[in-house]
Design goal:
It comes from Patella caerulea. The chain has 9 helices and 36 strands. By secondary structure, it is α+β, with helices and mostly antiparallel strands. Strands 1-32-31-30-29 form a 5-stranded mixed beta sheet, with no helix packed on it. Strands 2, 33, 34, 35 and 36 form a 5-stranded antiparallel beta sheet that branches.
């Protein structure tokens, strides 16, 4: 069968230029998501929005599930619900402990109560009607003599002294004038220096919303001497009345039973119970002898009669009042210059060699107004979105102040060697500003309104600040998330800690350096702590610990990073490694600051919660062995009315098994000396050099012996060289060639 074949049948491939571009629509079947028809634009946008919402919800749910899983796998800290309820003082409004851990001072709606921190026995009371104590703080100013600083609900600040189991009123700092239409001035803050040398009180005029800070010098040493006189007079008066009661009882021979009752009871004496001076176990008769001070208050020549008491009256001795030292007003907003001419304006402006507050300048108010109007015209369409100024609810500026000792930052001429170790300077900053001011407490002038000696500007608004216990370091927290650390002793900036770029600094606190396991650095002429530990908490409740060594500034670890909302209250007295924190679920935790782990959880009895959880009423006692906490509960009676109940609970921290390792841990609590004057430093260096003289002599003898050995080796090398060369003379380093005169 014939087959017809076409001749010359060849296939010519197309050139690259003739190949058509690939159409993406031809490959839709490759992607399964594109099998469906493409929806129009409005529905396509809705689809994208729904997908994004689902993805965000799914990620949020996944985070919650991961947190739940991590929480279930987390090792739970032991819970202790062994709180002991006190049968009295259930209406406590404020708590504080004595510095030495002997007593706990309780503020009540009608006075103050002092109890023993270990046995909870009432030691002394001070009663006054309609005095609801809202704040109380204790300072140790002598041997078993304490200064109490209180503020009641009416805004009245008072000073008390407690010694020999007696409480006496020292001074009402802002006593109100009981007249119709009189200006009411209340106190919003009252803080004293550590040893009670100075006190600062923030006063506010309720009618004009004016606020200012007053600093008073307290005659601490004079109060100690006056207190000795008062106690002696009370003892003598008590003994005299006891003798009179005994003589009256002896005259009644026919009623021996009444005599016995009067002799053993204090109700027969017509004086208040506060006159009964009880001798506590272990106390000595000279327990009130004050600590000698190198620069105390002048001793009065003839002390006035302190105590004039008639039977039936309450003891009210008169003490020396404090003296006003300084009055500080909040900074005024910067306004235009009020000078009438350019020459007068230039005279007010300084040379610019120092940093000031910026109040003195040559910019007129007209220029500032023109700039504001120009800004409003350029951004007229955006001005409507700005919030309206609410001057009625405007926040009043509050000051924060610290009493510090002299340092290299003290201006020349304000140093006083006699005030070494005592506060001579106050550091103040106001809310909402970025300047920190330093004032001297030693200036003597009739005008108490002084200008700041030093102004420290910062790049952001100040949110918090603190000073170390030794007074060397000053830490300032900023809204930008940075912490600036100053070394006041050397007068230099230690460094800037970049903590967070998203959150501001909420709280800074120096920790006890004894928690570090590092060895102390020997820096002649004395041992110096290698670091200062700084606890930092940001606005998102994350906690960080920084260690500032002698030369570097290093972050160690993060204690808590946005896992739980916690607020650090304070460190545990006696155990500086532990922090007392309160969580958002109204529970108390003891956390180890060295590793960030929860040590134990403190649980109140059923139906009781913390009173004001974010500012709970609590106090330590007995050097950290006891913890006093106020709890509140609410219930309904049969009629449906709400019944509020509050009680004071005590935790015996010393009995917790999880804390045994902390109590047994050795700590170095030696206070390292810091010499603040040149003479002290030179004397310490000379003393150290004399002490190491035998060691230096021994090293010198060893070196001379080594030099003799080295010389013998050199001579042996020379002899060996002579023998090898075979010449009569070998060149030596010690043989110098003779110079030819020609």
């Amino acid at each position: 069968m014939p087959v017809y074949l076409r001749k010359n049948m060849t296939f010519t491939p197309p050139s690259l230029e003739n190949i058509a571009d690939l159409d993406e629509n031809d490959f839709e079947f490759i992607d399964p998501d594109k099998l469906k028809d493409q929806v129009p634009q409005p529905y396509r946008l809705v689809n994208k929005i729904v997908d994004s919402v689902v993805e965000k919800a799914w990620s949020f749910i996944s985070d919650i599930e991961n947190k739940k899983t991590a929480n279930l796998n987390k090792i739970r800290a032991p819970k202790y619900d062994c709180a002991v309820k006190l049968q009295s003082h259930e209406k406590a409004t404020a708590l504080t402990d004595s510095v030495d851990g002997r007593y706990v001072f309780i503020g009540l709606p009608n006075g103050i109560v002092v109890i023993d921190s270990l046995t909870q026995e009432t030691v002394s009371t001070w009663d006054e009607e309609k005095v609801d104590i809202a704040h109380i703080k204790c300072h140790l100013i002598g041997v078993q003599t304490y200064l109490l600083v209180t503020i009641d609900e009416m805004g009245i600040a008072k000073l008390f002294i407690f010694s020999s189991e007696q409480i006496f009123l020292l001074k009402i700092l802002n006593e109100q004038v009981q007249e119709p239409g009189a200006t009411k001035i209340i106190s919003t803050k009252c803080e004293s220096s550590e040893e009670g040398d100075y006190i600062g009180i923030v006063l506010e005029n309720t009618s004009s919303n004016e606020i200012w800070l007053e600093l008073h010098r307290l005659p601490r040493d004079t109060w100690l001497r006056e207190m000795e006189t008062v106690v002696a007079e009370l003892k003598a008066l008590s003994q005299q009345q006891e003798e009179e009661a005994a003589m009256a009882a002896e005259s009644t021979e026919d009623n021996s039973q009444v005599f016995t009752e009067r002799k053993g009871s204090t109700t027969s004496i017509k004086i208040p119970s506060t006159l009964t001076i009880r001798e506590r176990r272990g106390s000595s008769s000279n327990s009130l002898s004050p600590t000698p001070s190198p620069s105390g208050s002048p001793k009065p020549g003839t002390p006035p009669p302190l105590l004039t008491l008639t039977p039936g009256e309450k003891p009210n001795p008169k003490f020396t009042p404090p003296s006003l030292v300084l009055k500080i007003h909040p900074p005024q907003p910067i306004t235009g210059s009020t000078s009438s001419s350019v020459m007068s304006a230039c005279q007010k402006v300084d040379s610019g060699e120092v940093i000031g507050t910026g109040q003195h300048h040559i910019i007129t108010s007209t220029h500032l107004e023109q700039r504001d109007s120009m800004f409003e015209q350029q951004h007229e369409n955006m001005m409507k979105y700005l919030p309206a100024e609410d001057k009625q609810n405007e926040e009043i500026m509050q000051p924060t102040f610290h009493f510090v000792t002299s340092s290299r930052l003290t201006p020349v001429g304000l140093e006083q060697p006699s005030q070494t170790g005592r506060p001579t300077t106050v550091i103040v900053w106001w809310t909402g500003e970025s300047n920190l001011r330093q004032y001297s407490l030693l200036k003597q002038s009739k005008d108490f309104d002084h200008k700041a000696d030093i102004v420290w500007p910062f790049c952001s608004t100040i949110t918090c600040s603190t000073t170390s216990s030794c007074g060397i370091y000053l830490a300032v927290g900023l809204r930008s998330g940075n912490v600036v650390l100053w070394d006041r002793y050397l007068g230099i900036e230690k460094g800037v800690i970049g903590v967070s770029s998203e959150y501001s600094i909420k709280q800074v606190q120096f920790l006890d350096p004894s928690i570090s396991s590092e060895d102390m650095t020997d820096y002649p002429p004395y041992k110096t702590s290698s670091s200062a530990w700084l606890l930092i908490q940001t606005s998102d409740n994350s906690q960080y610990v920084y260690n500032t060594s002698l030369n570097t500034l290093v972050v160690l670890y993060t204690v808590n990073e946005n896992n739980e909302e916690e607020t650090v209250l304070s460190t545990v007295s006696g155990i500086p490694e532990l922090l007392l924190v309160v969580t958002k679920d109204n529970s108390l935790l003891l956390k180890d600051v060295t590793n960030g782990q929860d040590v134990c959880e403190l649980i109140l009895p059923t139906s009781f919660d913390l009173t004001s959880p974010w500012e709970p009423i609590y106090s330590f006692g007995g050097g950290g062995q006891m913890l006093y906490v106020k709890g509140s509960s609410s219930s309904k009676d049969e009629e449906g009315a709400i019944i509020d109940e509050s009680s004071l609970f005590v935790y015996q921290l010393r009995s917790f098994p999880s804390l045994d390792g902390y109590w047994k841990r050795p700590r170095n609590n030696d206070i390292k000396p810091v010499h603040s004057t040149v003479e002290q430093r030179v004397n310490a260096l000379l003393k150290h050099r004399i002490a190491v003289q035998p060691q230096r002599k021994e090293r010198l003898e060893k070196r001379w012996n080594m030099m003799q050995q080295e010389l013998d080796i050199i001579l042996q090398c020379q002899e060996t060289a002579k023998k090898r060369t075979g010449f009569g003379h070998a060149y030596s380093y010690f043989d110098q060639p003779e110079e030819n005169d020609n």
